[in-house]
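User: I'm putting together notes for a lab meeting next week and I want to include a structural view of one of the chains we've been expressing. I don't have a solved structure, so I'd like a prediction I can at least talk through. The sequence is below, exactly as it appears in our construct file.
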Amino acid sequence: MRNPLKLRQLKYFVAVAEELNFRRAAQRLFITQPPLSRQIKMLEDSLGAPLFERSRQGVRLTDAGTRFLSDARSLIREADQVLGRFEPQDAPALAELSVGITTVIDASLFAWVEAAFAQRFPETRLTVKRQNSSQCIRDLNRGTLDAAVIGLPSHAEGLTTEHLCDEPMVACIPASHAAAKKRQLSVLDLAQDSLFWFDRKLNPAYYNHCEKVFERLGFRPERVPEPSDHHVLLGLIANGQGVALIPRSLKAMTRKGIVYKSLLEGEQLRISVGVAYRVGEVSKTVAALIGLLKERVEGHA
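Assistant: Thanks for the context. Below is the predicted structure for the 301-residue chain, given as structure tokens.
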């Protein structure tokens, strides 16, 4: 007997189908990738058909997945309509606040923000968008975001930024790597490896910062494009196709065949995390959000 479909699984499936990227879908859903992958596998088992195909080129829907997508969206709409019929008709309209959160760090670091804000400020609806820092900055300047948690350094002219925390970089290497048994590495231990590295346009300021550190250290590895899907990246590293330098919080993603190692230069290459907002436009709700972010981050420092 097949397991019954769950609304959560349908929402997870639609997120992956729309992003065609498990990492971005997990960030959008404010969960990590392992539970997302497990729920998709359970859904596929219930349906008796694979919904996605993964390859080095990325993720794509199977024929069964394409057919199921419209059904899943319809089921979600119907569920929302049922719930909507039971909402109080005289409920006051909520104020709205929109915040962007960078994808450079693990989604779980700020997964608490919506629930915590709703509990403290029930009269305001907080909308969260997971996207890279450059897009957050553009949306802030366009007025489509009220605040954003971004990676620093970033080119954020015209915005006020306040520091929240720092994320040292760690090395992600194959378990078979010659340096895998070392307790701590230098980036120079990886000089002969292919380095998976991000595109400069994703964060020009941080890219330039790293280039200065690399130049000072004499670290000049071969660069290869970093896949946007973290599962794909870890798979390539496990297969011995390269190494990566990643923020420490992303160590939460594990995979057989890879190991994480702290770096002697981890602090030099650290990416700082800050909250940004438009100069002179700090409403009470934006100030409340900034205060909540600082309070929670400082409390877990």
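A couple of points you could mention at the meeting. The chain is about 40% helix and 25% strand. The longest helix spans residues 63-84.

User: Perfect, that's what I needed.
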